[in-house]
Amino acid sequence: MAYFFEEPSRTFNEYLLVPGYSGEENIPENVSLKTPLVRFEKGQEPAISLNIPMVSAIMQSVSDDKMAIALATEGGMSFIYGSQSIEDEAAMVARVKDYKAGFVVSDSNLSPDMTLQDVLDLKEETGHSTMPVTADGTPHGKLMGIVTERDYRLSRMDRTEKVADFMTPFDKLITASGDTTLKKANDIIWDHKLNSLPLVDDDGNLVSMVFRKDYDSHKGNPLEMLDEHKRYMVGAGINTRDYAERVPALVDAGVDVLCIDSSEGYSEWQRLTIQWIRQHYGDAVKVGAGNVVDAEGFRFLAEAGADFIKIGIGGGSICITRETKGIGRGQATAVIDVAKARDEYYNETGIYVPICSDGGIVYDHHITLALAMGADFVMLGRYFARFDESPTNLVNVNGNYMKEYWGEGSARARNWQRYDLGGKKGMKFEEGVDSYVPYAGSLKSNVNTTLSKVRSAMCNCGALSIPELQQKAKLTVVSSTSIVEGGAHDVLQKDKTPYVSNVHN
What we know:
By secondary structure, the protein is of the alpha/beta class. The chain has helices at 65-74, 86-99, 116-126, 163-166, 182-191, 212-220, 243-253, 268-281, 295-304, 321-325, 331-349, 364-372, 382-385, 443-460, 466-472, 480-485; strands spanning 15-18, 35-36, 40-41, 49-50, 54-56, 77-80, 131-134, 143-147, 168-169, 176-177, 196-200, 206-211, 235-238, 257-260, 287-292, 309-311, 351-352, 355-358, 377-380, 394-397, 400-406, 434-438, 474-477. The strands form seven sheets. Strands 5-6-13-14-15-16-18-19 form an eight-stranded parallel beta barrel, surrounded by seven helices. The longest helix is centred in the C-terminal third of the chain and has 19 residues, at 331-349.
């Protein structure tokens, strides 16, 4: 006979947090949202921690290099989508690692015999306005000069003019030796009021560049996710088919953590993938796995060696797995169950395996609920798809600005590997839809607003950290009437009224 769970399968919207005591210290400015990303042993620190508990979903319509840079700036991490060629995914990873390094290997290089038109074309391609000029046009060739926007005026110059004729030549540049420390390089930039500083070796070859904007950016974004070389951190999705070819390419590109992208993680295919990574890289390469929705699935992947485990099947806004196959579980119930299993595993083994709630987040407060229920961080798709930084088109739908958003199981994405159960390659039916989401502007402003709500709610619970929230949180199931009562009701909202005339009696 089939097994029947006694408790109903519930979603986040069926719960509310009950306030606890808030002391004088419980103010949002004192709240830390730092949280572990990968497994660690009791008494040790995790190799990677997030500064905010938010990662972007492994989806074509969400996570590319642009999204990765924007989210890392705020303290989270993106997992670049794996439903693309190995070469293209590795290139995205490499662009993130090269974007902000303190010491930047230039990807916008000129040779003296190139033209002004070449400069304009390169600027359009890379978005960079500072371009080193090397003898052979390579990132590490002999430095001849630099071209910036101050070196040319389009209204007075012919597009065929040679770079050598208008660049700032080497003898006019302030440079530093290749072994200069980042602190010293920044001091030189400030002392000489520079926007950039080229570092060259003893033979005059370009080693790297240091930019003033990177220093300013770091000071304005103290939660940035940076590796030991001051580069942005980035994750990437892999599948259980071509991992032997994909993983080495991503590691070579500098990826910080991998995640097996699958709708169902409780499978031998995931165990074999993790096993291969451990055989070839040991514990040096971090890899998450999932998705699961119960204690059995968590235990299986934890024992297989997963560095973190994703929770959720069918809860995403564009996912139709539940209605297509009848497979899934309410996200709140799944998180609560898996969090209990994680704590039991930790008590038994002394190994803490972080869990990620993936899907089911409709409102900002659902993030706080997921954390309170035991999630270490959340993975978001629809949330990030709305922003300027997502890779999709901004379109006008019936007079409203929208962003395109589609699931990996849709006919548009055709990411059959995510739903792979062995056998023949390819999609047999859809498990996702193609849709639009309301355009919301920039990532930075929205993330800051969302996290302000999370911090405020944590203070209401008397918690200054995520572990403290999980310890102190009191949750109550709410009725359908309570859900209605929780929003504005029995009033006519001004912003929902199309026109109101001013009438004076």
